Amino acid sequence: MKKIPYKIYLEESELPKQWYNVRADMKNKPAPILNPQTLKPITFEELRPVFCDELVKQELDDTTPYFDIPQEIIDFYKMYRPSPLVRAYCLEKALDTPAKIYYKFEGNNTSGSHKLNSAIAQAYYAKQQGLKGVTTETGAGQWGTALSMACAYFGLDCQVYMVKCSYEQKPFRREVMRTYGASVTPSPSDTTEVGRKILKEFPGTSGSLGCAISEAVEAATTQEGYRYVLGSVLSQVLLHQTVIGLEAKAAFEKYDEKPDIIIGCAGGGSNLGGLISPFMGEKLRGEKDYQFIAVEPASCPSFTRGKFAYDYCDTGMVCPLAKMYTLGSGFIPSANHAGGLRYHGMSSILSQLYHDNLMDAVAVEQTSVFEAAEKFARIEGILPAPESSHAIKVAIDEAIKCKETGEEKTILFGLTGTGYFDMVAYEKFNNGEMSDYVPTDADLEKGFAGLPKVDLS
Amino acid sequence: MKKIPYKIYLEESELPKQWYNVRADMKNKPAPILNPQTLKPITFEELRPVFCDELVKQELDDTTPYFDIPQEIIDFYKMYRPSPLVRAYCLEKALDTPAKIYYKFEGNNTSGSHKLNSAIAQAYYAKQQGLKGVTTETGAGQWGTALSMACAYFGLDCQVYMVKCSYEQKPFRREVMRTYGASVTPSPSDTTEVGRKILKEFPGTSGSLGCAISEAVEAATTQEGYRYVLGSVLSQVLLHQTVIGLEAKAAFEKYDEKPDIIIGCAGGGSNLGGLISPFMGEKLRGEKDYQFIAVEPASCPSFTRGKFAYDYCDTGMVCPLAKMYTLGSGFIPSANHAGGLRYHGMSSILSQLYHDNLMDAVAVEQTSVFEAAEKFARIEGILPAPESSHAIKVAIDEAIKCKETGEEKTILFGLTGTGYFDMVAYEKFNNGEMSDYVPTDADLEKGFAGLPKVDLS
Q: What SUPFAM superfamilies does the entry give (chains A, B) (predicted)?
């Protein structure tokens, strides 16, 4: 058997040429997304004013198994992909485990995460459609950064509505976006009607993601030649992110290896869905078996304590509704530092798969996540993003279980990004000032009370 | 001819197994370093209390051409090396140049720069010698971060004296170091005699690199089992950094290519020396020819306007003296944001090579450097460190010259690191608030006036 290197890099020529649409192999398809006004399944025509045509097609298509990746996107991918599949030899040794641990590392690009995989696709289709630009919202700024880079590459205008408190308190990501030519507006702003309304009602508000989404959607639909784009949750985003899993699978096959357990952090689901889709396809087709584990923060436990129901994807209730595991669009997650996982809902694809017992989910607490992050940083040399560290925590737990049982399992987890812009959270941890928070059942009931009543009969 | 991919990765098995000591091939050797007390060539025994034994040997050896890289260091290198040699196809296209542009990218590791290559070597030798730990100083924090990572790997104590104003104004790098287990002390501090003395004389001072060096050296020499380590300038550091040039050369040879021009930014010289050494060796031995260009900031022009003379390596005058291009150890560079290039002197190896007309040097102004950085970020997708961007600026200039003359030159430059922790500087640039500064001749004369009188006869 070939000796497995620390980092497995595919050749450029081995980059995936198609994205994989896992819905095509699902017996129980995700429920259709609904028009927020009519609460009926939304149509192509109804979605066109908001999203690019080609992306609407991808969003609504649950039967085509593969979509060709346009050459222009492949060329962009070549600047930072294939990303390495890393064998965590040092971590295995430190844990003294018989398990083999691998991680697919998506942090080695300037956006610092996997978000760039979908940003470049969405920018490409906007460019192809002859649009002038796109609008979006961003909280901590990872998605906004990725989109700025993608738009700079294609010469598209990029308008980012950034939650005001992040705009002021996290100026570094804001400046990365500006360096890539994006215009970044603190939200709520006086550039949109909804923004002005909110500012009048709540002068001095520091904003919210829900408000920023509403402003971005208004900006897209009221400017000629603009569309709105989103970085997670949607099925089109999961589709683009399958480049992660396809590469990982190809890298394993090169060495005649196969993971037994696949672990990913889950916020909206884009990284987890992208990582597991090709493997899940094999499981759905009865070809191979895998255990999948979604890891979410205990402070925002959509899978483990949420309800499987139709809900709004945004707090502003302007986006389509999806059937998903949700805490209710009115649920306000606590100030958990893993910003990318503070989302009330979950991809409808992953929700259906979880509902059908095709994957597992666990919720973990923040301080244990940072303990795992620090250990990983010191042993494997990479400072992980707090989001990614949720997966690290559970991968370590599983490897320790293997030590106890003597099983030589092969574990794969997704290392979605780096933590360079999360040092305020690390500082809290270093100072012993970090705490955990788990919502009570009563907290959750408040969120559930706001779930919409949907009747599709 | 094989199609050249965007990124050339060597196999793990092709990692260099020896560092190359360019001094062995130099006809005119660098002048010996001097004991700061006696101003006579310093001996092995005199250096032992400050540096590890093995590193002293490397420092003083100007005849052995190759040093074996210990297996433990190679194993660490495997976590982030071989680093890619990148073909800048997008930049070539954007510049519409017949030149081929390559860069050796050293930024894809958590320290964010090439500094880790020497940090791990210095930590290894300290561990081998049975030491408890090492001390060092850091300004912006790149070197301190790299050393913290290396010490965490070998379980060594790491004490970093960080210039107080950086400690307070740049808390993020400080927190990365703490996450890796280093103790970071704002300098001047009350933990050393020299620190207390300075605090008494200048209460409220925000510190300086010179003061931090003095504290770190005192801490190393007064604690049992500690030594002092340094991240640039020294010949041992250039030796370790030759892993950069050796990998680049091997990658070119894989594709039967050869650079015509090799460009690097120059502060203390560790990156530039490491990149060019193996190519310079061929030039010195008359085997091949290359043009080498050192790029320095116009605000701190050691090569282009300095004197070739013996000088102190630190403003505190506790370290050995070296014969080098220098602006005088009392020269205070302006607040240039390329922190890593704000050094009054230059590696004695590079100084001798420059003195012997074996390489060229140019000085460039800050705003033009940030213009190049922004262009590069948008076109090639990587947000470069301000230091590295000096090399980008000149690489672009050379590529444009090729367009004018029609020459198909092959250009290689060193992309030493990423700019994620330099967003304050980018913000100034984005806001149009950045300015240039070029010292007057009178400014320089003040620095030269402090040069020591050395008589080696």
A: Tryptophan synthase beta subunit-like PLP-dependent enzymes
